[in-house]
Design goal:
Layout: E1 7-13, E2 17-26, E3 29-39, E4 43-44, E5 47-48, H1 51-69, E6 75-80, E7 86-95, H2 103-113, E8 122-134, E9 137-140, E10 150-161, H3 162-174, E11 178-184, H4 185-193, H5 196-201, E12 203-208, E13 213-219, E14 222-229, H6 233-243, H7 248-258, E15 271-274, E16 283-286, H8 287-312, E17 322-325, H9 334-342, E18 346-348, H10 367-382, H11 396-407
Parallel strand pairs: 1-6, 6-11, 12-17, 17-18
Antiparallel strand pairs: 1-2, 2-3, 4-5, 7-10, 8-9, 8-10, 12-13, 13-14, 15-16
Helix pairs in contact: 1-3, 3-11, 4-10, 6-7, 6-8, 8-9
């Protein structure tokens, strides 16, 4: 069958899972009509380290999604993450030629803002407009038609490793898919779990993946700061496996079923059965012991997030607090511990803004996949400055595609 032209597909290539989410464009918005979820193989800390294993995982996740929707998937919007991602703010100032801001003036101001020196091994993924300043008036989202003599564009630029992006494109193309766009994963997650009020008032998005934790800070409706920490849910699982001498697969199950980020929330008399390496029968262990392994690692991760928050300079501007998403967000006690460490109100971010979500998909682990669909729709509708100036379409996918066409 041919692909429905009114569908958008998000492909979340993560350290622990590959998730394909299919959204159908309808009059009242996006409706999720299918998905595919497979364990991720060949990826470490958000970076592809084994091409064949990653291709196979992507292929299985896409095939599962195709079975659920009944047609073939050809084009996807995919995410990019990893410790190689760097973000910084920049600005550009130009004189307004005719004392009235026109589209050409806005374009020249944006060009001036992105005229920064970037190392040869890095590529711009996003140029995200924050605001414009006309003369001394700041906080302007759309300066078109305003009178003035000086126009300043303030933007947030996200860069990533060229080779990492090339590998994402190559793996996806090897499964027979075309990449419509590459999107920073916390940007996609924010699209699905944050409200416009939160972005306006100031909010810290924390997306805890398997190998990395992505941070994005929004204020006055725009993204202001991005960072990636080289720690994620897999590090907690590894600690459990080592501390309890348990296989990694069993440690992951134990974390999900019995894990808690706050030892004080667990009954000291409660016990759990833990499979151990080299023993036929599980052995009983106090659940409190499990939490004593988890809590220090979570405190370490949250402390690093706190340092990034202080580094950003936006701590005093986060009236909406923090939103934690990703699979690890379901860990019991994580909200309470995060509030203690970050000194902010915290909530768990679930996918929103779409219809058709099943009970299984109404889960923080699908935040990025759903967000990629929403981002793809917003960018397709609004063009290069998708979202009324909040986003900028990435040109990286098209560039890398051209590279491969030249090679082939």
């Amino acid at each position: 069958m041919s692909k429905n032209p009114e569908t958008i597909v998000g492909l979340d290539i993560g350290t622990t899972k590959i998730c394909t989410v299919v959204g159908e464009v309808r009059e009242n918005g996006i409706t999720i009509i299918g998905c595919g979820l497979q364990p991720s193989r060949g990826i470490k800390k958000g970076v592809i380290i084994n091409m064949d294993s990653t291709v196979e995982s992507i292929k299985k996740a896409v095939e599962e999604a195709e079975k659920s929707v009944g047609f073939n998937i050809k084009t996807v919007v995919t995410g990019i993450a990893g410790s190689h991602i760097k973000g910084f703010n920049s600005n550009g100032v130009i004189p307004i030629k005719d004392k009235e801001v026109k589209k050409g003036d806005i374009r020249r101001a944006m060009d001036a803002a992105k005229s920064v020196v970037i190392p040869m091994d890095r590529e711009v993924i996003h140029i995200l407009p924050q605001e414009f300043v006309v003369d001394d008036q700041d906080g302007i989202k759309d300066p078109l038609g305003l009178s003035g003599g000086r126009l300043e564009a303030r933007v947030h630029i996200v860069t990533g490793s060229v080779t990492s992006a090339q590998n994402i494109i190559r793996c996806t193309n090897r499964t027979g898919l075309n990449v419509q766009d590459i999107v920073l994963q916390p940007l996609a997650s924010g699209e699905s779990v944050l409200t416009e009020d939160e972005k306006e008032l100031g909010v810290m998005l924390i997306d805890i993946g398997g190998g990395t934790t992505d941070i994005a800070i929004f204020s006055k409706g725009s993204i202001r700061y991005t960072a990636v920490l080289p720690l994620g849910g897999d590090h907690i699982t590894s600690d459990i496996a080592i501390g309890m001498r348990s296989p990694l697969s069993a440690a992951e199950d134990i974390k999900r079923q019995y894990g808690c980020a706050l030892t004080s929330m667990v009954d000291s008399k409660e016990t759990i059965d833990v499979p151990t390496i080299g023993e036929n029968k599980p052995r009983p262990i106090a659940r409190k012991m499990l939490c004593q392994i988890i809590q220090p690692r979570m405190e370490e991760m949250l402390t690093l997030m706190q340092k990034e928050l202080l580094k950003s300079g936006f701590k005093e501007f986060l009236s909406a607090g923090a939103v934690i998403t990703g699979g690890t967000a379901l860990l019991k006690g994580i909200v309470e511990l995060a509030e203690q460490v970050l000194h902010l109100p915290v909530r768990v971010g679930y996918p929103q803004g779409v219809g058709g979500l099943t009970d299984a998909m109404n889960n923080p682990m699908y935040a990025t996949g759903v967000g990629l669909v929403l981002f793809g729709r917003r960018a397709k509708t609004n063009g290069v400055n998708g979202g009324g100036g909040k986003h900028a379409m990435s040109k990286l996918g098209q560039k890398v595609k051209q590279w491969f066409e030249e090679v082939l």
